[in-house]
């Protein structure tokens, strides 16, 4: 069992511009519907990587601006 963690909200990407470029490239050639489906699958993959429902709930609140 994993130790419970908290959501990291401070900048934590080693190369944020490269990440943004890779994300945009991943959407190249996709329709709007395909892009939304890609985002949904990406969220599920990353949620699985995080693994902690408590951390994910913190992320939900952060994303909503709470």
Give an account of the 3D structure:
The chain is globular. It contains 3 helices and no strands. It is mainly alpha-helical and 66 residues long. The model has no long low-confidence stretch (mean pLDDT 94). It has a domain at 30-64. This is DUF2783 domain-containing protein.
Largest sheet: none
Q: What would you call the quaternary organization?
A: single chain
| Count of individual helical segments | 3
Q: Rough shape?
A: globular
What is the terminal separation in angstroms? Answer: 29 Å
List the helices and strands in order: HHH
Number of separate strands: 0
Average pLDDT works out at 94
Sheet-strand content, in percent, reads: under 5%
Estimate percent helicity: 55-70%
- The helix-and-strand class reads mainly alpha
What's the Cα radius of gyration? 14 Å
| Poorly predicted runs | none
Organism: Variovorax beijingensis
Pfam family, one: DUF2783
Protein name: DUF2783 domain-containing protein
Keywords:
single chain; 66 residues; 65% helix; DUF2783 domain-containing protein; mainly alpha; DUF2783
Topology:
Layout: H1 16-27, H2 32-50, H3 53-64
InterPro entries: DUF2783 (IPR021233)
Protein name: DUF2783 domain-containing protein
Organism: Variovorax beijingensis
Write a compact overview of the structure shown.
With 66 residues, the chain is an all-alpha fold.
């Amino acid at each position: 069992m994993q130790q419970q963690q908290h959501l990291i909200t401070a900048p934590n990407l080693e190369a944020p511009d490269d990440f943004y470029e890779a994300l945009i490239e991943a959407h190249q050639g996709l329709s709007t519907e395909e892009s939304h489906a890609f985002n949904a699958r990406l969220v599920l993959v990353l949620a699985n990587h995080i693994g902690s429902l408590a951390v994910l709930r913190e992320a939900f609140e952060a994303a909503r601006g709470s």
